[in-house]
Amino acid sequence: MKDIEPIVLTKEELERISAGINEEDLMEFEKHTLNSFIEPLIPIEAKEPGSAWVRVRDKEGNMKEMIDVTSMNWTLSLGFAHPDINYAVYQQMLKLTHVRYNVLTPSRAKLINKLAELAPGKLKGGRVAINNEGGGLANEAAMKLALMTSRGADNFGVFWGAYHGNSLITGCASQPIHAVNRFNYLGHGFFTRMPYPYCYRCLWKHKEGIRGKKDPGCNLECFDLVEGYIKGMASKRFAGIMIEPNQAGGGQIPAPVEFLKKLKDTCEEENVKLIYDECQTCFWRTGKYFTLTERYEKELNIDVSPDMITYTKGLGGGFPLGALVVSPKIKKRFGPSEEHTTFSSNPVLAAAGLAALRVGEESKLGENCEKMGQKITKRLLEMQEEYEVIGDVRGEGLFIGVELVKNKDTREPFTELSEEMVLIAPEHGMYLGESMPILTMRGQILRRNVIKVKPPLIITESDADFILETFEVILKEAINKLK
Ligand SMILES: Cc1ncc(COP(=O)(O)O)c(C=O)c1O
User: Fold this and answer.
1) Between 52 and 122, where is the model more confident?
2) Which of 23, 349, 363, 417 has the largest count of CB atoms under 10 Å?
3) What is the torsional sign of CA 331, 357, 311, 267?
């Protein structure tokens, strides 16, 4: 690598910025940070470039190693500090780090072309917009385009338990959670919330909807209700419907493919734009295929492809990047500043994104994800037999949810257990995450009882063994603590 020669500051000073932190810096930070919740462990460096392990500094100033089963907000699909991403970023940084929104750079053009090529089903070869932020902005871009093509309809159908972002509008499109619901009144008039097909907790009391498959006796009664909303039960006409085909934050809940098919058909009939939020499920997170849409198309031979899909998380190889991919049948494009932010065209992010996609393709990332996902799911299903508290294990690839219950018959959510597990996991060298809190309108927690097993997709067999062994140790310890 060509070395960079700083011209104002010394190399030593510049290196110290990321090398570590002392008590004094921490005390000052505590006084000045506006965010009230910061985790005590401070990640300093990847254990090795491109691994699922990271070295962290604990409260006492000691260093320890952790495996990250959260991929740092489900993002580091290629692990920490992947060398290929870093190399592409470094090369881009040597040349240019920023341009204005309407200025084209090579990395942006190539990234957009690649995303159009990777788009599933009827979106293949369609149009793409990227942003420098992630999923929230991508979802907002999708909503803007739906409004631009809707001939006056200005409402959106969204789902119970959804999470689409934390901006003022995507927060309104999402299930109210403690962090964002205080702002929801701003966009209330624009969203109609509908029941999501949560088969394990079917509102129509079908009991056999487990592992993300619908009960064989179910007639998709939940869809009848959604159809009713689309066809006039909602107080306003929908410009679009936004749905996570496998609801992530809400509890790792796959919508049955039959539901998605009916939704697609009805949206087509009624000229409502169907938007899939695949922010989490893209980038081979669910296994062999780049998106869930592609999985359904290629594996089940069912075309459930929507009009628009949004991506983020693994897409930027650890850098902030979001994308909207639109079916070629939508002819409208954004005008000069309809979809811009100051940093939207950042070439460094685009270089990282393109490198991440090429690494994913070249290293057969999806196949490793599928294999490791099967291994982990198999053992979790055995644990389900052994432990009364594991009610359901569901998901594809390394997009796994373990639903914890107080009793397998009543399915009463065991929120305290998942919270305890997440709390003690770091003591055992593991970052672990849980579903977001689903609240009642009065702010009480209905459930937050799904443990997410979503490590980087590059994990090895021995990482998977470590995750499974540690998961069981933590599970037992948390059960004993709560007795
Ligand atoms: C399904 C889904 N959509 C959208 C978002 C929002 O993405 P961002 O936080 O990058 O705005 C998230 C973030 O967790 C997500 O999980």
Assistant:
1) 52
2) 349
3) positive
pLDDT in tens, 274-306: 999 999 999 999 999 999 999 999 999 999 999
In angstroms, how far is the first alpha carbon of the chain from the final one?
A: 56
The Å distance, Cα 77 to ligand 1 centre, comes to 15
Query: Quick one: tokens of 195?
Result: 């029941």
Domains of the chain: 11-77 (no CATH), 78-483 (3.40.640.10)
Percent above pLDDT 70 for the chain: 98
Task: Name the residue with tokens 């089940």.
Answer: 300
Length of the chain: 483
> Mean of the per-residue pLDDT values for the chain?
95
Q: Rounded to whole angstroms, how far apart are CA atoms 355 and 120?
A: 20
Distance from C-alpha of 236 to C-alpha of 205, rounded to nearest angstrom: 29
Confidence (pLDDT) at 363: 98
Residue 168 — pLDDT band, cuts 50, 70, 90?
A: confident
Q: Provide the token pair at 107.
A: 């990395």
CB 389 within 8 A of CB 363: no
- Can you tell me the distance from the alpha carbon of 458 to that of 368, in angstroms, rounded to the nearest whole number? 7
Which residues surround ligand 1 with Cβ inside 6 Å? 133-136, 139, 163-166, 244, 248-249, 277, 279-280, 312
The number of the ligand 1 atom at minimal distance from the alpha carbon of 281 is 1
Give helix 106-118 / helix 347-362 axis angle, nearest 10°. 40
> Do 448 and 437 meet the contact criterion of CB atoms below 8 Å apart?
yes
Of 312, 313, 324, the one to substitute when testing ligand 1's pocket (max ligand atoms within 8 A of C-beta) is: 312
Q: Measured from the CA of 134, which atom of ligand 1 is nearest?
A: 10
Residue of 143, 164, 281, 292 to mutate, ligand 1, most atoms within 8 A of C-beta? 164
The sheet that has 390-396: what strands, in order across it?
390-396, 399-404, 450-453, 433-434
Tokens found for residue 293: 């849409």
CA distance 181 to 174: 9
Q: Is the pLDDT of residue 313 over 80?
A: yes
Assign 37 a pLDDT band (cuts: 50, 70, 90): confident
Q: In the block, which residue shows the tokens 């930070």? A: 29
344-359: per-residue pLDDT in tens?
Answer: 999 999 999 999 999 9
Spell 174-185 as b/e; 16+ CB within 10 A means b: bbbbeebbeeee
Classified as helix, coil or strand, 83 is helix
How many CB atoms sit inside 10 A of residue 73's CB?
A: 12
CA distance 214 to 72: 31
Q: Which of 282, 477, 315, 307 minimizes the C-alpha distance to 399?
A: 282
